[in-house]
Each structure stands twice: as C-alpha cells, then as structure tokens.
Input
Amino acid sequence: MKVDGKHYRSIWFDHDSNVVKIIDQRWLPHRFTIVELNTRKSFCHAIRDMWVRGAPLIGATAAYGVAAEMQNDAGDQALDDVCRDLQQTRPTAVNLAWALNHMRDLLKPLPDHQRAGAAMKRANEICDEDVECNRQIGLNGLQIIRQIAAGKSRNEPVNILTHCNAGWLATVDWGTATSPIYHATEAGIPVHVWVDETRPRNQGAQLTAWEMDSHGISHQLIVDNAGGHLMQHGQVDMVIVGTDRTSSNGDVCNKIGTYLKALAAKDNDIPFYVALPSPTIDWQVKDGIAGIPIEERDGKEVTSIWGKLEDGSLANVQICPDGTPAGNPAFDVTPSRLVTGLITERGISPASTEGLAAMFPEFSSP
Ligand code: MRU
Output
C-alpha cells in the first residue's frame, strides 16, 4: 500500500544492497523508519521485539531469516539452528512454523551450494503469495460489504469494527481484515471503520489508525471497551478481524480482546467475520481453546504506555502505582460458534471442521 504516495511492502529484499529491509513498526505512527535485517540475531530480535508483527508478516520474516542464514552458512547445522531460533521468538502465530517447515522441507534435500539461492527465491515467493492471498481475501470480503451496502441508503457508510492491526503492516501487503475495506473503498462503497485501540500495545491506535488515515478512509479510534455500546446502538454493521492461528474446527485465536467483541456481536446479531490466508490454519489443532499456545508478554506493556509528548518527543509513561503486578496474555480464542464466517483466499467458509475441510480438502485429514 502507499505511504506518502509511494508504494511499499512491509518487508522486501532490496536487490541493490542485497539485503532484507523492513518498516520498523515500533515507531509508527510518529516515525517512518526502514531498517535492514541481515544476521540471524537481527531477524529473531525483529520478530520477538515486534519491529515486525502480525501473523503473515512474522512468517515472511522467518522465511527471509532462513534465506539470510543460508547466505552465510548453508550447512545442515546452520539450517537446523536458524529454524530453532526463529521458532522460539513468538509462540502463537502459526505462520511462523508454517514458513519454517516450508523452508526446511525445501532446503534439506538440496546440496549446500544451491541452498542460498533457492532459499531467497522461495522467501520472495512466499511474500508474493501472501500478497495475492490477501488480494483475494479482499475481493471475497468485498462481496459481503457490497451486500450490506445494498441494504442501506445511497452514501450511507457500512460501519465496520476491527480489532488490533490486521492491516497491510501485519502482512506483506493489503492486510487480511483491511483488504475488504481497501477493496470496498476502491469500488466506491463508503465505509466507516471503528478502530479499537487494542491495549496494551495499541496496534489499533498506532497502526490501523495510521493505515486508514494514509488511505483516506473514514475512521474513528475508540477505546477497547466501546464496541459493545456502539453495537447496541446500531452503529456497527459488521466486525472483521484477523487471526494468528485458526484451528481446524474454526476456533479463532487473535489479539487479546477479540473474544469479547465476538460475544458482543453475537448478542447484538451483528456478523462477525475473520479474514485469513490458509497458512494461518493449524490443521493439527482440532480445538483452539485447548490447543493453541497463548503468548504471555512482559507486564511492562500493561503498566506503561508509549506515545508522543507535547514537545514531540516519544516516551514511555508508567500508568499505575510503582511495582503493580501485571498479567499480559497477548491473545485469546474466539469459539467457532461466535464466528459468522472465515474469509479466505478461496472464498467464505463456515467456521467449522466441515466447512474448512470442504474449502481446503488437500490439507484436512479425514
Ligand atoms: O501481537 P501482534 O501485533 O503480532 O498481533 C497481531 C494480531 O493479533 C493480528 O490481528 C493477526 O496477526 C492477524 S494479522 C493479518
């Protein structure tokens, strides 16, 4: 998508400098910073400390991390070590394991001298495939938005609530939850986006609000607790969120707070959709609540908040008494019964074992 009129992806291989570059998301929306990743340590650090984040982008970064390692050392030991280190960075988004398994399966049978080239080629392809998946998700989700718009009077916007950032910054491009929104805007359908701030790290406030603003999409930032009230008062037509891992029965793991939005949506008969590319489906996990590992992050993310001071400097501010203990589960699981549909690159699937198996028969086991 565009930043100041120039097209960017969230990660790319720069052929001139022969290095992988990312937008360092820690500083958005206040600073737009591009950094280079080249060592195993830098790739691990970028994922763990959330310079890059969002399930599809974590997967793409891991693929490039393996490729960069192969340029330094293409031996079996280095391949095993880099996959192990990258796998340990964050536990919840399954796209990480998906990308690493993919790279390992491709590279293991190859002689060492072919690995660097093959790895970089595949990492580039994984990025291109992610962009295409998300474009298709956008076109499929657009049909739902179009239907809702058809039931409204002309120029009345479709009101969409989203949580966290499942935007182009969370993927290689387009985003998952935002792709239908971008496509609707391109198709001339008026939309208004309610942007959940998404404490503790405020991906909604910092990233989704920035994306919406950059693309001229009508939006309002709301506190995480406002969604239920807006739904009760007819101000939300649909919810679209992303996911970090969806189990084969259609349970959806996403940023903490998603479950509460799904409950409120159900209580108010508001459709709750989840947009996801197929690498986000974990076919091994049959029950998302029991089987998906939930990342527990540092309590400092809860006891403090980061932002811009009046003098323009950036700072972290403590918001509670000294020494307050804090818990920080980063994700929750929304049971499939609360999900209206899964917007995938192949179409809209019911959130169920049967629905996903019918949409992706080659992956599901009988
Ligand atoms: O902790 P984050 O910022 O990596 O969490 C991101 C999310 O929860 C997104 O909603 C999810 O990855 C979907 S991304 C298209």
